Amino acid sequence: MKKLVLKLFVGFVVIPAALIGTLYYLNENGFFNIQKVEVVLENPPQGQEQFLKPNVDALEAALAKYKGESLWNIKLRSVNKELQKQEWIEGVQISRQWPTTLSLRVRPYEVKLLYMGKAGKLVPIIKSGDFLDPIEAKEAPDLAILDGDAFAKKKDLRKKAVDVIEQIPTNGSFSRKTISEVRYDNKEGFWMTLIKTGTQVKIGEDQVALKAARVSRVVDYLETKQFDARVIDADLSKKVLVRLRKDP
Asked: Which of 126, 182, 207, 212 is the most exposed place for a label (fewest CB within 10 A)?
């Protein structure tokens, strides 16, 4: 019986105490000090590398202050609270990678549109219609730019613009890649400018996907016939109206 009690004492008291003591000793002597802060982007949006890289670089620089601190003692909740101030981050998972790495898996917001701000800087717009911090043109993703003061004042209008642009295909003759500017008229809804020709496309606000498909077919036809359109009005019930540049 005494042997059993002794074994239990060793198993449940002595060994855990020795383990705790060892870990404490290692921690006090810097064995768990952070040597690397690892930032990994989860599912970064395609074509937005030039926008994300400066943000990631700035984040890594800000987190460098944790190097040398004990990975054992660091409070992940405090790190997470600090990251919540980064507007470009939608979500983040923070973990300890023993013995010396602080790991962050960051999910960035996808920029949907841009707005021309002060001093020529571009302001990214995310799905909610919220603005992110202004950026230099060289850092901006290749996206359409919202044109008009109303977009600066009304978040709901920016959100509506995002909803409209997301109904337009990513690729094709009339697609997000072929649109340079988006503007809004209170009576006529959304208008878009094509990069290649400068053609103005009236898309309205509803049934955008259907209208976009019609516009794409019209653009293909115009290119085949080498016609130069000034306006394509797709905001009609069953047809698309085209005004050529020579038309009044």
From this structure: 207
Q: Is the pTM of this model over 0.85?
A: yes
Q: Give 34-68 pLDDT, tens digit per residue.
A: 999 999 999 999 999 999 999 999 999 999 999 99
The angle formed by the CA atoms of residues 192, 198 and 200, to the nearest 5 degrees, is 35
Q: What is the CATH classification number for the domain harbouring 83?
A: 3.10.20
Beta bridge partners of residue 105, listed in sequence order:
40, 93
Domain boundary among 87, 108, 129: 108
Query: Which residue range is the domain that position 192 belongs to?
Result: 167-244
Cα separations in angstroms, 113 against 123, 143, 150, 169, 194: 9, 6, 15, 15, 15
Give pLDDT tens digits for 177-204.
Answer: 999 999 999 999 999 999 999 999 999 9
CATH number of the structural domain spanning residue 203 = 3.40.50.11690
Count the domains in the chain. 2
> Is residue 131, in this structure, part of any structural domain at all?
no
Spell out where 72-206 has E strands: 89-97, 101-108, 113-116, 122-125, 145-147, 179-185, 189-194, 200-204
Question: pLDDT by residue (tens digit) across 87-139?
Answer: 999 999 999 998 999 999 999 999 999 999 877 889 999 999 999 999 999 99
